[in-house]
Amino acid sequence: MKTVILLTGCINPNGMPFTLLTDISERQKQYVDAIHYYINNTDYRIVFCENSNTDISPLFKNEQGRLEILTFAGNQDKQRGKGYGETEIIEYALHQSSFIQDACIIIKITGRLIVTNICQILKSLNYKHDFVTCLFHSNLKFADSRIICGTTSFYKEFLKNKGCLNDSEGIFFEHVLASTVLDSSICFIPFSEEPLITGISGTTGELYKDVTTNKKKTVSYKTYSWIQLKKIYQHSPHRHPSLFIRTYIQLNILKYKVLSKILLFST
């Protein structure tokens, strides 16, 4: 299946609640910088879809073969918040993009953020069947929406639940993402390695720093991801892994726990 990077954007939030980073020029600069990063550091086609009707395509006249820029007037219902606006962006891109097809892998990334190990992550996602990949918090009620990998069919499932989103009621994009993954029968695959993200949170202004990995952190993440995979299967009513798969997961949990202890005592 073909892979497409979908960068979601809102250059002018125009009074959107729960948005700390509101400077239009700064937001645009961050989007432009991120687009350049993915153009220069990946070989994939890129869709930048923006919902404040701000067209930045003149800044990328020489990239039309690999970059598609879509813009529309979204965020009409600000009461629902920017999470709902994000679902509108995904939906618009699925309907309007010439790059995105019914059978393709979509890497949805918050458009101002840079995933510095994106190439390593994408190399591991060469699947021929439907799947979804995201990073869950430990209680499985919240899934990180900064980067989501999955086939088109998963995003269509997710969009069926967009009416549940309402930031003012405390039901965020991340909650609906988590519940959709758990309720789906589509194969869940953990990230092969932890996404390393740089940028600034539009909600809180928090600075995301690309933390250098080492063997301990890698093993710690592997342990966490295999434990999460086990929990996801246990809490998914429509996924029924075979005895072989359950044993394989448990052996990997044991392997990385042992490696963690070895590394702990070797320092």
Q: Can you walk me through this structure?
A:
With 267 residues, the protein is an alpha/beta fold. It folds into two domains: 2-208, Spore Coat Polysaccharide Biosynthesis Protein SpsA, Chain A (Alpha-Beta Complex); 215-265. It contains seven helices and ten strands. It has helices at residues 24-41, 82-96, 118-123, 152-159, 173-183, 215-235, 243-265, and strands spanning 2-9, 45-50, 67-71, 104-110, 114-115, 131-136, 143-151, 187-188, 197-200, 207-208. The strands form two sheets. It has a seven-stranded mixed β-sheet, sandwiched between helices. Strands 5-9-10 form a three-stranded antiparallel β-sheet. Strand 1, helix 1 (24-41) and strand 2 (45-50) form a beta-alpha-beta unit. Helix 2 (82-96) packs across helix 4 (152-159) and helix 6 (215-235) runs antiparallel to helix 7 (243-265). The longest helix is centred in the last third of the chain and has 23 residues, at 243-265. The N and C termini lie far apart (44 Å).
The strand line-up of the biggest sheet is 3-2-1-4-7-6-8
* CATH homologous superfamily (4th level) name of the largest domain: Spore Coat Polysaccharide Biosynthesis Protein SpsA, Chain A
Second rung of CATH, namely the architecture of the largest domain = Alpha-Beta Complex
| Main sheet record | 7 strands, mixed
The class by helix and strand makeup works out as alpha/beta
Q: Count of helical segments? A: 7
Count of domains = 2
**Helix fraction?**
25-40%
CATH class of the largest domain: Alpha Beta
Assess the beta-strand content as a share of residues.
Answer: 15-25%
Shape: globular
Determine the CATH topology of the largest domain. Spore Coat Polysaccharide Biosynthesis Protein SpsA, Chain A
Distance between the termini: 44 Å
As a whole number of angstroms, the C-alpha radius of gyration is 19 Å
Order of helices and strands: EHEEHEEHEEHHEEEHH
> pLDDT below 50 for ≥5 consecutive residues: which ranges?
none
Count of DSSP E strands? 10
